[in-house]
Amino acid sequence: MVTGSVRASHGVFTPLMEKRMGALIDKAIIVLKALIVFLELIRMFY
To answer: How far is the C-alpha of 43 from the C-alpha of 32, rounded, in Å?
Structure first.
């Protein structure tokens, strides 16, 4: 897992940082999904 290496290099994360990272990852996933849908739409029209 990526989180293991991050935790090792930065020491112990505070719960706040953990929560913030989780929110950031969730946002990244949402953006990626939106991008995929957008690309699918473009492929349909062209």
So the answer is: 17
